[in-house]
Structures are given as structure tokens and as C-alpha cells.
């Protein structure tokens, strides 16, 4: 059994025991968080309707950071150049249960 869950602006495929990274949330380490279900697959049965009762429970493991992204801007013949960096922050969660 697996489910497609929505975490922030992204959707991810999860099964029980998976560790995934979602956008940063302010839940403390060790607490559980509930993620809404978009699609539920149980063997041959695929459910896309009536999912308002379905949910995925996950335990917060801690915060992580994504890879460093370098942003560069340059304009020819004007002497303009700019360099910036960005590193996205994520929260690592472990899926503990899929409630159908």
C-alpha cells in the first residue's frame, strides 16, 4: 500500500517506513504530523475519491538543508555582475501509518 501526499506545494509518493523531506514546518522533533492524501493505492485498488477521511501520519525527525544553488547575473559591456546563493531548508519526516 502506498499513497500520494501533498506537503506544501509538492506531491510525493510514500509508503509506511519511508523517510522523506518536506518543506520546512515548525513542528518539534518527535511529534507527529498529518499529511493530506491525494491518491491511495492498495494493490489493484486505486482510490481518488472520498479521501477527505484518509490521511498519512508521519513523525518529525529533524531539519535538513538542500544543496547550495548559485545564482549569477551578468550584463555584457556594462560592468554589471551579481552573484548570490540559496540553500533551501527542509524537514525530514518518517511515515508511520497510512489511514484509509
Automatic annotation (TrEMBL):
Top-level taxonomic group: Bacteria
GO MF entry, a single one: structural constituent of ribosome
SUPFAM superfamilies, alphabetized: L21p-like
Pfam families: Ribosomal_L21p (PF00829)
Stored InterPro entries: bL21-like (IPR028909), bL21-like_sf (IPR036164), Ribosomal_bL21 (IPR001787), Ribosomal_bL21_CS (IPR018258)
GO cellular component, one term: ribosome
UniProt KW keywords: Ribonucleoprotein, Ribosomal protein, RNA-binding, rRNA-binding
Biological process, per Gene Ontology: translation
Function: This protein binds to 23S rRNA in the presence of protein L20.
Quaternary structure and interacting proteins, as annotated: Part of the 50S ribosomal subunit. Contacts protein L20.
Family: Belongs to the bacterial ribosomal protein bL21 family.
Record protein name field: Large ribosomal subunit protein bL21
Species for this entry: Nocardioides cavernaquae
